[in-house]
Fold this protein.
Amino acid sequence: MREERRQASVMGKISKSEPAQGYPPEEGCYLRGNDYSPVAVCVILKWSRLEQSHPGVQPPRSWIMDAAPPEIEALVRLGVETGAALSGTLQTENIGLEKVICNIVSNPNIRYLVVCGPESPGHLVGETILALEKNGIDGNKRIIGTNAPTPFLFNIPADFAERFRKQVKVIDLVDEGSPEVIRQCIWSCYQEEPTTFRGYTLFDPGAFPEPPLSGTITWRVTHPEREPKSEEERHQKAKLHALMDRVKKTVEAKKRKEETQ
C-alpha cells in the first residue's frame, strides 16, 4: 500500500495531499493539469449533430471529440492553462457525471468544480450537477431536484456521490462562455486569501481532510434510461424475469420429453 503523504503548498501553509494511485482513474474528454490545484473545470457539451438527427444513436467517442466546437475546446485548454487540476467536457447526466465524480474524489486537493458553457437542453447537465451538490441522491440513486431525463448514478457507490458533495463547491457558470470570466474564476479559487467572485468567496482551503477514494465506474448499467426508476418498477421487472424463466424451463422440459419418446 502506498503511504499517503501530506505536503505544504508553495503558497504558505496550505496543506496538500497525494491523489490516489492511478489518478485520474477514468478516461474521458479532459486535460490534466496541476495535481495540487484546488479547482477542476467542467465545460458542458451539448448534443452532437449525430444525436440530434438520429435520436438514441450513441456516436463513438472519437466522433464526439471531433464534433466539439472550437470555442468549447478553447475553454477546456483555458482551464489547464489557468491552473486547473482537470479540465474537460461533459455531455451526459449519468455515466459521464459518474466519471467526473470518480476523478474528483480520487484527488482530495480538488475543492471546487467550475461548471460552464451553454446548458444542454437534452441532458440538463449543469442543472443536474448543481442539484447533486444541493440535494444528493435518493434510495434509487436518482439525483434529487433535477428535471434531467435520466439523472441516475447506478455505476458508482453512494458514498462516492456523498464524498463529492462534501469535498467540492460547485461554481455555477452555466451558460457562461467568456474566457475572461472563467479565467478569473479559476484564478480566484487558488488564492491564499479569500477573494470575491460573483457572490462566491473563493480561496484555496487545502486538501479535503480524508484519504482519496479510488475506483472506476462498474459499467453494470450502460443504458440508465432502461432501468427501473422505483421499487415498484423493479419488483415488476423481477416478476417478469421470473415468469420468462419459468416459461423457458417449461419449454425446455417439454422439448426433452418429446426427444426421449
